[in-house]
Amino acid sequence: xxxxxxxxxxxxxxxxxxxxxxxxxxxxxxxxxxxxxxxxxxxxxxxxxxxxxxxxxxxxxxxxxxxxxxxxxxxxxxxxxxxxxxxxxxxxxxxxxxxxxxxxxxxxxxxxxxxxxxxxxxxxxxxxxxxxxxxxxxxxxxxxxxxxxxxxxxxxxxxxxxxxxxxxxxxxxxxxxxx
Length: 179
Hints:
By secondary structure, the protein is of the alpha+beta class. The chain has 5 helices and 10 strands. It folds into 2 domains: 3-124, Alpha-Beta Complex (Homing Intron 3 (I-Ppo) Encoded Endonuclease, Chain A), CATH 3.90.75.20; 136-170.
């Protein structure tokens, strides 16, 4: 059977919550059955259930996990990727291949870098390319003029940017506008 349509459940990858929650390769999260202390000397049984999926302001689906005293909102795409997608290069971002933030099926996710994730969003048209004030020629000119004696403050005023931008340029931390 096609693994896309076979739902598999695994413990969440966050150690503090692994005994209490599972995530599926289809992008669902559920709590597990557990027993806790009740008032007095008794015990109380809690039955596991599928967690309510919420959406944040940026459109990402998340769940609220709780294992007293810890409470945390966690994005579902991160939970699915950590549980089902190998990450041998230890990349930190998860990209939605179809650009739909609510589609957290494991086959729609990939580990990537921040730059590649951003470039994917720009290429898909869901994020505009940054509108940079300085061209590559401006950057070259700033370096040349700074070496010629202009102060960072003077260059910042002339190019209508912050002095910190000029500092990054002349110290080699920002060389071009290319990602």
